[in-house]
Design brief:
This protein is of the alpha+beta class and about 375 residues long. The protein folds into 4 domains: about 60 residues, no CATH class; about 90 residues, Thrombin, subunit H (Beta Barrel); about 110 residues, Beta Barrel (Thrombin, subunit H); about 90 residues, PDZ domain (Pdz3 Domain, Roll). The protein contains 7 helices and 25 strands.
């Protein structure tokens, strides 16, 4: 009898093992045993089976000490409120620190990367706050306006820098993690998702606040990116930075964008060598593009109609005047497909450009040497 009972236990045990092996890979495992889906990372003998939640926890614990909150303190001012039904009142704005963005540490001696638009308020004082609530005053701000990147310098030592990964081999569907100060209030918020698109072109910023940046080749992700996440890191499952969170699509859900880390790495290399970023190439004109239809109706060539020329700018020195129409730059015609700014931004400060200008029914050939914009 004892032998028979022992065999029954073995059969039950074997059956239990089969059931477990069959259900640990899917939803039934989570339902009956509280087990989460797992995925495989690494190759060969180093291959390990890890729970997705464990990866997120490990990355958050590893990287959070390197993620900072950026705060701003603007000068105090009184704002007048006019009541449309009569009377007025006033309120005070500014004066108190406010969390406005995120950033991450890239050197032990106090270099922090964030977005340019996070630190764009003139006359404001900025600080960074680390995970352990230590505050550091920002001593220097260096901006790369072409890529919406800024480097902040604080007086500190022994900081924990992030590990920079690579963005040239990213794949759609790749798992990502974002860390930042969501909504300018909730510090060190961790969200997860996947890369949902690559090579996107977006306009980042707020036209009502006076800034809009054209950013090309950015990463699209469905990881929750909220106002306040700007400047924070987008990470792979190894805890390496693969992008800088920069924008959320207005009016859309689950669509955020990040600047590829390879752009940041190139900017850091340039900064470490030169102590500054190269500014945007600058011509110095205000203009309005003339469409083909408008050109035909007004018997003028298609191109960029110049409404104003900045004094002492490259355009001014080259002889460009208001009411001129720039029709070509370096042999490339200006039209709906190629606006003046699209061509200039592809150049570098110091480049010499040939301008074909239409003025009073005559075509002039002018040469301008592009300067460096400070913004």
């Amino acid at each position: 009898m004892a032998n028979i009972h022992f065999k029954k236990v073995l059969v039950v045990g074997a059956g239990l093992v089969v059931i477990l092996a069959a259900i640990t890979g899917g939803a039934l495992a989570e339902r009956f045993f509280g087990l989460k889906n797992t995925f495989r990372v690494g190759t060969g003998t180093d291959q390990k089976i890890l729970k997705e939640e464990s990866v997120v926890i490990d990355v958050a614990e590893k990287v959070s000490p390197s993620v900072v909150t950026v705060t701003v303190e603007t000068p105090e001012r009184r704002v007048l409120n006019i009541n449309p039904f009569g009377g007025f009142s006033s309120r005070t704005e500014g004066g108190d620190p406010q969390d406005i963005g995120s950033g991450f540490i890239v050197s032990v001696d106090g270099l922090v990367v964030t977005n340019k638009h996070v630190v764009d308020v003139t006359g404001a004082k900025y600080k960074v706050v680390t995970k352990d609530d230590k505050e550091y005053e920002v001593k220097e701000i260096h901006k790369d306006p072409q890529n919406d990147i800024a480097i902040l310098k604080i007086e500190a030592s022994g900081l924990t820098p992030v590990e920079l990964g690579a963005s040239d081999g990213l794949k759609v569907g790749q798992f990502v993690i974002a860390i930042g100060t969501a909504l300018g209030e909730f510090r060190h918020t961790v969200t997860t998702g996947v890369i949902s698109g690559l090579g996107r072109g977006i306009h980042a910023g707020n036209p009502y606040e006076g800034f809009v940046e054209q950013l090309d080749n950015v990463i699209q992700t469905d990881a929750a990116i909220n106002p306040g996440n700007s400047g924070g890191p987008l990470l792979n499952s190894a805890g390496q930075v693969i992008g800088v969170n920069v924008a959320v699509a207005q009016g859309a859900q689950n669509i955020g964008f990040a600047i590829p880390v390879d752009v940041v790495r190139a900017g850091l290399d340039q900064f470490n060598k030169q102590g500054k970023f190269n500014g945007k190439p600058f011509l110095g004109v205000q203009y309005q593009m003339i469409s083909r239809q408008s050109a035909l109706l007004n018997d003028v060539p298609q191109g960029a109609y110049i409404t104003d020329v900045v004094s002492d700018s490259p355009a001014d020195k080259a002889g460009v005047k208001p009411d001129d129409i720039i029709t070509e730059i370096d042999g490339q015609k200006l039209d709906e497909e190629a606006a003046l700014a699209d061509i200039i931004v592809s150049k570098k400060s110091g480049d010499s450009v040939n301008l074909k200008v239409w003025r009073d029914n005559q075509t002039l050939d002018l040469t301008a040497i592009l300067s460096e914009s400070s913004e």
